[in-house]
Amino acid sequence: MTPRPAVTTLVLLLSGAVALAGCSGTSKNSAQSNAPAAGSTGAADPNAKIKEGLKITFLPKAVNNPYFTVAQKGSDEAASAIKAELKATGPSEASASSQVTYINTAAQQKQNALVLSANDANAVAPALKTARSQGVKVVTFDSDAAPDARDVFVNQATTQEIATIQVKMIADATGGQGEIAILSATPNATNQNAWIEIMKTELAKPANAGLKLVETAYGNDDDQTSFQKTQGLLQAHPNLKGIISPTTVGVAAAARYLSSSEYKGKVALTGLGTPNQMRDYVKDGTVKSFALWDPSKLGYLAVYAAGALASGQITGAEGEKFKAGDLGDYTLGAKGELVLGPPTEFTASNIDQFNF
Amino acid sequence: MTTVAPSRARRIADLVGRARELGIVVALALVIIPTAFVNPRFVEAQGIRDLLLNASVVAVLAAGQTLVVVTRNVDLSVGSTLGLSAFLTAQTFADHPDTPIVLGLLVGVGVGLVCGVVNGLLVAVGRVPSLVVTLGTLYVFRGVDFALAQGTQINASNLPDELLDLGNGRLFGVPVLVLITLAVVAAAALYLRSYRSGRDLYAIGSNPEAAVLAGIPVPRRVFTAFLLSGAVAGLAGALWVARYGTVDAAAGTGLELQVVAAVVVGGVAIFGGSGTVVGAALGALLLGTIASCLVVLRIPAFWQQAISGALLIGAITVDRLLALRLARELRGRSDHDA
Amino acid sequence: MLERFARWETALVALLVLVAVVGQIRTGGAFLDGGNLFYLGLDIGEVALIALPLTLVVVSGEIDLSVASVLGLSSAVIGELWDAGWTLEAILPTVIVLGAVCGAVNGLLVTRLGLPSLAVTIGTLALYRGLALVVLGDRAVADFPSSFTDFGTTPVPGTWLPWPILLCAVLAVAFAVILHSSSFGRSVYAIGSNEEGARFSGIRVKRVKLTLFVLTGAMSALAGIVYTFRFSSARADNGVGLELAVVAAVLLGGVSIFGGRGTLGGVLAGVLLLGGLRNVLILDDVSTEILTVVTGLLLLVSVLAPALTARVRTSSTGRRSP
């Protein structure tokens, strides 16, 4: 018996078989993009009534995530307002692969619409396309999928706005001078990466010349890691004047650490957080201001958009209008994008008006 | 695995164990001193406090895990137990803000005890492999946690200040959490070292059949080990709340691998029979310190995990080589490796 | 003994039938629908591919927790090389070899240094995932040609069978032959039952184990290829946490964690049962909490049931301790 040749043979066979799977060379340059543009089908009828009894699936990045629990409250409200049957479901961990199962299931169950926040814009695209070809209207919210894989994207605020307000807040808190760092979620978090990208261009503008971004750290949306990375940033950069944490877990962890450390009041912190998480830290002066949108309004608007799509009021083309219940009228922008509105800035003076 | 006589094996194991603890201390120095040289802030009061605080939750869990691992078992459910206990403790405080702190901590310990009883019964009475049992309860406890939490979150503003102060407070300049950790580690170390039933755990891990023949009540001892590990994980959950102030159902996800890594780096043999609680706690401190110093040394973010992983493997490899060498020298002859 | 384990596999098949029947009724016929079976097949593809070699590893008395990280690393490398302009025909074999190298590192640490595989692969779990981040960082590569990604989104023509399952079926036969009817397979069982004994009877224990780790690495990389094309997405965090699902499937399939016992058929039934149950529960809108709890309970049953029946049958002897 000769195990070593056996293993080499097996591995070679395996890789050889894979190599034979293609007949000619397929590289990035030879492959042409042959994804057909999934254009809107049919014309919109702005006067169509929203149908009753629509079946809608609400699919967050992960269930048990407090942010999406709040969003779901709003979507439940909207669903009862339009007399739709809303079903909230989803994986327990935020991974693309587990979300795809639920997308396929929504198609299997012949739901009228699917409202989701995509874990990975590209990974969910094939499943979404299949679902749409079976008549499911797809609305993304919070985190978009590839634009040709969905009908409408309900954005919480434009990427530009979210990035700008955070840069503005850190400039206010630091007096516009000094080194700053970013504490993000995971390195692959799509939203955070898009915001950070724009923040960098904002910081490059002459108005922000006094601010210098020295490092981007990743707390993996985990309390323990976020704590550790915050401490590391503070030690590694003795002249650090401010931290931006564009993620609710990160900003709360960083605030908790700062509030109990000797850096309190010396290093400014801002970012995206919920008022309930941040209340204590705003009141004790650790954080001057932070921002977020109301997740429940986001869920509300997304379900209204799904209802309008499934009833033929809109098709996802630019310029179409529809009324989203209490939120009023909305007009679709380019690439079927809706914007909830500018983010809210929370400070000690207004934080007690909010409860989410 | 080894063919030497038990008494001799015990002596060698003890020596190796002591050498390991010393080895970890040396490794800690090797990590801390150059980092401090580059960045003195790393060893200022705040820096040292942070290092100790970061390691404390994992160190507490590692102390409990050591009791289980020396019996040739493993408890993979500690992360889920911690999560469940953290949520229930936080909820108790949120619903009844007047709860005395000690009572609240006991809620956490109680939740952990229940989880430990489940594991212990399944392993000791059901006589099924602990790795499979605790992998199963890892899912079950987390599922229960999800079901109870229903996607909600408990924030610092819902928690009493006394509890949060416990997470931040200091006694004679030492963080209270670190003192609690030291107490847990000391208690577990004392139990393993000086109590009959504690010594029995080593005997069970070294040779289960021989332990039975020696009249050791193996199932009861194994049950106790799981019970203690659960209780300690429950306490760690309560401490988690005090430290982080924000709790949802995902708290402590994946922590089990960090704990097992700390235990292994700390020189506790994964096949049972040898290792100390102090070693495991030092292992937790070493792993936490490595992670911290990579940030402080401004290692690019994308490289940090790979370097941590490589150092972890490096640590157990060096450790193994030293142990082999030591064992050989003590035996005064070379033996074929296991 | 054999009889007992044959029984566990029978129980698994019975459970499978039960899940299928109950699922079919509860979902109004949606479960055994071709379209749904196609999705079910896709969902279990990667787990099944990794479970094949991992079964052999566990039978030999070792474990490999780094499999999901190897999957992630191979996905990241595919993305990086594709961006660098390599052809897929060159990338894919490279990635498989890379996976084999990852497996070899595990294997060498375990066999040459005598380190426990649980500890080694917890370390390489972090290391390989870390390397995936080093390779691809925060980027996501998605512009793969549809001639490749179609394998993950379309069934084998004329059937509802997904391509990855076809691949898996072919490999399953190969692995079944290796494990159950070759001298190599017999030596794997021998090592798992009694390593000392196997060594004395002339089996080259270290080589066999090394081979198994290399195979596991290569197959994990193959699963990474399938994953990347199925989702048309190469990211460093692909497949995070998948190792627990694979280990759970292997153990549910009746493989003893102490080695020496278990069959490939049982493991495949375990993979199908976990996947099928999950599919039915999701179709039936059962909440995620229940899904998590059920997964855990199944694992507990998988070890408790054989242990308890064995206890009842040999009620008074009680020779084996846990």
From TrEMBL, chain A:
Molecular function terms from GO = carbohydrate binding
Look up the domain of life of the source. Bacteria
Q: Which SUPFAM superfamilies match?
A: Periplasmic binding protein-like I
Q: Report the InterPro entries cross-referenced here.
A: Bact_Solute-Bind_Prot2, Peripla_BP_I, RhaS, SBP_2_dom
Q: Name one GO cellular component term.
A: outer membrane-bounded periplasmic space
Q: Where in the cell is it found?
A: Cell envelope
Its Gene Ontology biological processes? rhamnose transmembrane transport
Short name of one Pfam family: Peripla_BP_4
Q: Where is the Periplasmic binding protein domain?
A: 56-313
> Keywords of this protein's UniProt record, alphabetized?
Signal
Which N-terminal residues, if any, form the signal peptide? 1-21
Q: Key word tRNA-binding present in the record?
A: no
The entry's protein name is Rhamnose ABC transporter substrate-binding protein
Instruction: Tell me what organism the protein belongs to.
Output: Umezawaea endophytica
From TrEMBL, chain B:
CDD domains, alphabetized? TM_PBP1_transp_AraH_like
**Cellular localisation:** Cell membrane
Q: Name one GO cellular component term.
A: plasma membrane
Chain segments annotated as transmembrane? 21-39, 100-124, 131-151, 171-192, 222-243, 249-270, 277-297, 303-323
Query: Does the record bear Transit peptide in its keywords?
Result: no
Q: Which InterPro entries match?
A: ABC_transp_permease
**What task does this protein carry out?**
Part of the ABC transporter complex LsrABCD involved in autoinducer 2 (AI-2) import. Probably responsible for the translocation of the substrate across the membrane.
Q: What is this protein called?
A: Autoinducer 2 import system permease protein LsrC
TrEMBL record, chain C:
Which Pfam families does this entry report, sorted A to Z? Answer: BPD_transp_2 (PF02653)
Q: Name one GO molecular function term.
A: transmembrane transporter activity
Give any Gene Ontology cellular component: plasma membrane
**Bilayer disposition of the protein:** Multi-pass membrane protein
**Protein's cellular compartments:** Cell membrane
UniProt cross-references to InterPro entries, sorted A to Z: ABC_transp_permease (IPR001851)
On the tree of life, the source organism's domain of life is: Bacteria
**Keywords carried by this UniProt record:** Cell inner membrane, Cell membrane, Membrane, Transmembrane, Transmembrane helix, Transport
What are the transmembrane regions? 37-58, 90-111, 118-140, 160-179, 210-229, 241-259, 266-284, 290-310
- What is the designated name of this protein? Autoinducer 2 import system permease protein LsrD
**UniProt source species:** Umezawaea endophytica
